[in-house]
Design brief:
Largest sheet: 9 strands, mixed
Structural class: alpha+beta
Number of helices: 8
Helix content: 25-40%
Mean pLDDT: 91
Shape: globular
Radius of gyration: 21 Å
Strand content: 15-25%
Low-confidence stretches: none
Number of strands: 11
Amino acid sequence: MYSIYHFFQSLVQQKHIFKKVKKLDKFPFNKKLLSCKNDGVFPDMAIRLNKDRKIFTGGELIELKDSDSYTVSSFNSTIPSKSKKIGDIISGVNSIIKQQMEDAGNDIFSLPIRDVYYLVRGRKKNHTKICLIYGSFFETISIENLISQSFSQVLEERLKESEKIVSDDFKQTLLSIFSQQDNFSKVRNVEKASVKLRFRIMTEVKAEGNILNSKKYPEIKDDTLNFVLPCHDGNEENKIIEKAEYVFSKTELNQFSIFKIKHHFNGYFLVLQIPL
C-alpha cells in the first residue's frame, strides 16, 4: 500500500536524521514508496499509485523546501498548489518523470489529478522544524486569480504613471490573457534578437502562510516533525484519523500530539506532531 500517510510514517521512523543531513534531498527516503525522484524538476518525488484505491489512491506529488531559517524557501517557476494535472507535468522537458513512473509500473493517466504536498524544513540556530503539508496551505486563492490580480496591480501602476485611460473591458481582456502560468514558461524567439527571452515566476510565502513562523503558528514547535492536513469540518477530521489509524498502531499514534491550527486565510488544518 502506498500513500502520503505511509510516506509520513517512513519519515517518523527516521526522524532523527532530519537534524543531521545538510541537504534535505539527501535524506534516505523510502524508495519503495516512490515512483520517481529527481533534483531540480517538479516534483522532487511522487508516491506510487495503488491498484486498489478504496482507502488510499497513492500518486501524491512531493516538493522539497529546505531553508537555513524559519522562512519557507521561495518557489521557483512552479507556483504552489493543492493539486496538479499529471499530463502537464510529464510532457516536454519533464519526460524523464514519465519514464520513471512507467518503469515503476504505474498506469499514469489512471489518476489524472494529483494531490501536491510540500516537505518543508527550516533551521534556526540549533533547532529544526519539519512539516509535511498539503498544498492548500499555500494555495488560498486559485493560481489564475493570483496571476491575474498581480498583473492588475502592475497595469494600474503603469496607467497611473503614464496618465493613460483604457476601458474596463480592455483591462479584463488583457488580464484574462495573462492569467495562465503557461504563458510565461515558453521561451520567446524574437526575430533579429541574439538572445531568447523567458519570463519566470518566483513565489514567496507571506508571513501568514509561513508555517515555520513562530509568531503566526506558535503550535509548530522547535525540533518537531509535523503532518499538516486541511480540516474544515468534522467529516474531514474523522477521515484523517481513520487513515492514520490504518497506517499507525495505537502505540505509535499515542506518541503524537494531534491538534488544529487556524490558517490566517484558509480555515483549519489538523496537525500530527511528534518530537524529533
